[in-house]
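Next up, sample data.

:::
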Amino acid sequence: MEAPKARLSTSMGEVLPLIHKKWECIKIHGRELNRNSLLANGTRFIRVAAPEIFGVRPELKRRLKITGPDSEMAAVPATGPGSKKYQRILDAAVEVIAERGYFSSPVSAIAKRAGVADGTIYLYFKSKDDVLRTAIDETFNKFHRQVEEEFKTLKGPREQLEYIAQVHLESHAVNRNMAILMQTEVRQSAKFIAEFSHHHLVKYIQVVREVVRRGQQEGIFRRDVSDGVVAHCMFGAIDELLSSAVFTGRVYDAKATAAQVMDVLLNGITAGNRE
């Protein structure tokens, strides 16, 4: 079957300067191409000559559009965010850093675990910091998407809080390496702590506060309690349980433990105070 044809989604004017710059290093079947040959076959070799343009660096991302019977393949990019290689690098970084520590994890070790060349890392990410930051961002973005999807059908404020706590606790079982990284490596860096607090912790706290405020408006929760205090207590309790799981190897039943945390948080521990 004839291979699908590629249609370039960028102009040759953008690409030709890069072809002129890089033609010397391109070889096909061991035979070096001369400048005229490369220019004559520019559309064929453009992904080799100009990776900066086609989906490798996010800030310059453009992708090949595939036409023909295999056009559905275009939904999964060959390079850039969403590609298999991109995800392998993220997974490898989390694994290596969780095992060896951030400062003892050179890019070469991450590349080896991902099965790519060292230089390939820099086609996708600016630095090791960027790899770690992206891995954390993707993990928490997935967490928030999961919560938002469940909230479409789960309406009770108490049940919503229990679900947030449950998903938070499940993160250790879903991705133990990320849990280790978050409980150890990230906390050793003031920069990463500041970034995490500014981006992800703020959003987590805001979601909990909104649920608590709605519960207060509906008469389910006390109105004289700060929703912010409740949110921070909830995050702190779950976070401490995750630390215990990481450092002691203890395994929690996420659903049962989440329900108990919310029982303590909402009802306290005084006998006879249960609703």
About this structure: The radius of gyration is 25 Å. The first strand starts at residue 6 and ends at 7. The chain is about 60% helix and 5% strand.
